[in-house]
């Protein structure tokens, strides 16, 4: 499996992903003109000289090099909320207190805000169900942090992820059902398509501008505030392990949580290291016993390539990464080139034949492999 920047030849696969992901996945819209423009914007972003984050959007695909199949997507928006506002609700509390009457009441409220304007956002992570395999979701999620670590000038200090909130298989959101009943008479699928296409002017025009007292919402709507879609839960756990935390900000439409972390404090960013490549033959003795599970990437931008492998050996001192020749070619790495890597799991115990011996939950419990997250 190889991660690379998206290209126009991937349009058909991207259109399939836009259909498969369904309502609530606002990063992609099932519209070929929109998707073509998104691909071109990504290509332009990868080819742009950048000294500080702007409106760049980086979209990657996961490809099976043997078949050419596109297994999934993952992306980063360099700076959100600049061209059009990025709205959230912030969950907080207000206190109503009358000293004279001896009455005290603490209530939860939701306030609309633009708190994350200018932050970078990881997004568009989707692993196609027919291609689900151990490590694929982890690669799609973590590769973005390796790219950030190598090119920090392209991204903000704060990184956010908007997690998909609770919705049914029919594309109905309990939270939106309440808002629709009282404020905006649009189907959830219509709303997410409008937002995904950048048409969010209706938010300022129709959404309630005053705090929402949560106890006035329906019980169904209250129950999903800050909760994630079942299929997004593994992705949230993975981000939490990287250091992301929820600080009370939720999506305007499905009330899914937005999590955040400081870029340089993200586990895979902080623990990654740049090293010098030593290309070796596959039958080199040092590679025969298997190495640690490593996420490896070259240091290019437009020519970025990355993969997850146990076929390479990282020597932190003196900063050497030994890579078999065929893998080096796939990653566009030459002997003496620079690469970046991060260790994901200790070397497997080959003698036990038990996936759990790797310490990798995606191997021991492949059914938990994440499928998608906003």
UniProtKB/TrEMBL annotation:
Key words of the record: Acyltransferase, Arginine metabolism, Transferase
Biased segments, Polar residues type: 349-368
A single GO molecular function term of this UniProt record: arginine N-succinyltransferase activity
Residue span of region Disordered: 349-374
Top enzyme class: transferase
Pfam family, one: AstA
Origin superkingdom: Bacteria
EC number: 2.3.1.109
Family matches, as Gene3D superfamilies: 2.40.40.20, 3.40.630.30
Name listed for the protein in its UniProt record: Arginine N-succinyltransferase
Gene name tied to this protein: astA
């Amino acid at each position: 499996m190889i991660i690379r920047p998206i290209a126009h030849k991937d349009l058909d696969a991207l259109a399939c992903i836009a259909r498969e992901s369904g309502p609530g996945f606002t990063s992609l819209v099932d519209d070929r003109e929109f998707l073509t423009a998104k691909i071109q914007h990504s290509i332009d972003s990868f080819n742009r000289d950048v000294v500080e984050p702007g409106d760049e959007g980086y979209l990657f695909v996961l490809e099976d090099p043997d078949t050419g199949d596109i297994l999934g997507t993952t992306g980063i928006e360099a700076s959100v909320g600049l061209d059009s506002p990025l709205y959230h609700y912030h969950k907080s509390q207000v206190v109503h207190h009358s000293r004279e009457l001896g009455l005290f009441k603490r209530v939860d409220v939701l306030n609309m805000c633009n708190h994350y304007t200018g932050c970078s956002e990881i997004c568009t992570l989707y692993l196609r169900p027919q291609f689900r395999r151990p490590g694929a979701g982890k690669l799609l999620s973590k590769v973005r942090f390796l790219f950030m670590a190598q090119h920090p000038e392209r991204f903000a200090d704060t990184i956010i992820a908007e997690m998909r909130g609770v919705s049914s298989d029919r594309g109905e959101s309990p939270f939106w059902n309440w808002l629709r009943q009282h404020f905006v008479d649009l189907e959830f699928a219509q709303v997410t398509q409008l937002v995904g296409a950048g048409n969010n002017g209706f938010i300022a025009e129709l959404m309630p501008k005053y705090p929402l007292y949560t106890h006035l919402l329906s019980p169904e709507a209250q129950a999903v505030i800050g909760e994630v879609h079942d299929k997004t839960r593994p992705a949230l756990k993975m981000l939490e392990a990287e250091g992301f935390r929820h600080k009370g900000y939720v999506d305007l439409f499905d009330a899914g949580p937005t999590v955040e972390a400081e870029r340089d404090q993200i586990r895979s960013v902080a623990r990654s290291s740049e090293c010098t490549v030593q290309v070796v033959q596959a039958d080199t003795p040092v590679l025969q016993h298997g190495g640690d599970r490593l996420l490896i990437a070259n240091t290019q931008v437009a020519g970025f390539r990355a993969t997850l492998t146990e076929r390479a050996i990282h020597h932190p001192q003196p900063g050497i990464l030994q890579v078999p020749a065929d893998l080096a070619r796939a990653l566009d790495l030459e002997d003496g080139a620079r690469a970046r890597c991060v260790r994901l799991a200790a070397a497997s115990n080959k003698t036990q034949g038990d996936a759990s011996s790797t310490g990798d939950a995606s191997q021991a419990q492949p059914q938990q492999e994440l499928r998608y997250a906003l």
